[in-house]
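User: Show me a protein chain along with its predicted structure.
Assistant: Here is one chain, sequence first, then structure tokens.
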Amino acid sequence: MSISLTHVPDVDGAQDVLSDEALAFVEKLQRRFAATRDELLTARQTAQQAASEKGTIDFLPETAEVRAGDWKVAEAPEKLRDRRVEITGPASPAKMAINALNSGAKVWLADLEDASTPTWHNVVDALVNLGEAARGTLSFRSPEGKEYNLRTDAELATVVVRPRGWHLPEANVLVDGAPTVGALVDFGLHFFHNAKELAAKGDGPFYYLPKMESHLEARLWNDVFTFAEAELGIEHGTVRATVLIETIPSAFEMDEILYELRDHASGLNAGRWDYLFSIIKYFRSSGDKFIMPDRADVAMTAPMMRAYTDLLVQTCHKRGAFAMGGMAAFIPNRREPETTEAAFKKVRADKTREAGDGFDGSWVAHPDLVSICSEVFGSVLGDRPNQLDKQRPEVSVGAEDLLDVASAPGQVTEQGVHANLYVAVAYTAVWLSGNGAVAIHNLMEDAATAEISRSQVWQQIRNGVVADDTGNTITAELVKAALAEEIERLRTEVDDKETFEKYYVPAGELIGRLVSGRDEDFEDFLTLPAYRLLSTELVNR
């Protein structure tokens, strides 16, 4: 066996997760599928460059028969037929996993991606926790002696695991001395240890697939699932996957993505923040018609977002797949009743719109929001577990509708520049410290919101946008001064000087480069250079 580890993290159960047999399975996945993954990542670059030059994309002519065809995905297993409320969050530490399972949500999206920093400790600890969750033995005792256990008086949330996207490496698992594909490590270790256990109980294994940009990437995942099922002697089609439509090219290939995964498909999800980031990234050199207003102003009621979500519901229900709504990023603050009331009101309005549009369920980021989402969808669903019967025949969406950024209401402001820089630096610093999801100003921020924050500023500099609130042109010099102000603001808010120097200073330097407005500084994903920092300059916990 030529697979090796840099080290085994200090995690109870790590030796079991990283057994020779499990690593041999990961090595098989890496050798069989990594080369295709590499080709697909190269194809992403080619497609993006072509789209940026043209300033547009369209539905694929070569797959017109798939879009016109009369086919459906496999019927949903019992545990995935009612998904009216899904809670998202990392699978490490165990306390958060237990709280999610006990939350009353129908599904827990156990996130190994945007809401998790992929330190080797976090990755392995999450897999240990997911193994114990699959067997109903997960528990946690805090240093203060408080016990956390899985509830026995109510149904636990069904676990749907989100592995890392195709783009992320795993530097701590090596094959022939080279880093492996993070997605294959996450999926491989989880599937190897838990697939038979979950399948025997009808509990999975179920997955959420992030960041895909084409149906060929979905085909690769389908090949991975088919191979893995055969290797472990599990019935074909046992795996079910929900795909996040969170990139602009994937919005043009929803039918095709479901078709490629049709034996394993469960549904599509409207990943709103990454979707906005993807539009900026994809068309970053296409001029000012793709300039977005401040992040806070881009509502789901904007015409381009309505087109995206209406098409998603229509496509899913035509194919017998579930349409899942987006994240409610607002979080309550139990010390501030007015803030909590405002958060509840916004979440209720968001979920009411989604339920009315035909979504089968939606996401929340906090246990206190589960009851609101459940109530809103319950009022529409009644005795039905979902809305697959709501076909939306009136929906007609063309390429121009999905790309109509210019009609989005709102302004670009210097205040928004400052807010974006604050969030980008603060989130990146916390990410570098090992925590992938953090509350900032009563919003649950993760990698997706940090991505749109930093990419907006880059885009504004690149296009010389004039701020509506001050009349100033947003230049590299203006942003440099604003970044210095926000870093200083964070310095006053962070109590521990060592923490600030260790995490916030490199985060500020990284964000400063990523928002330069120069082509060579636009990284495809913030987490790629941040992961390099984790692997080299910072202690990899």
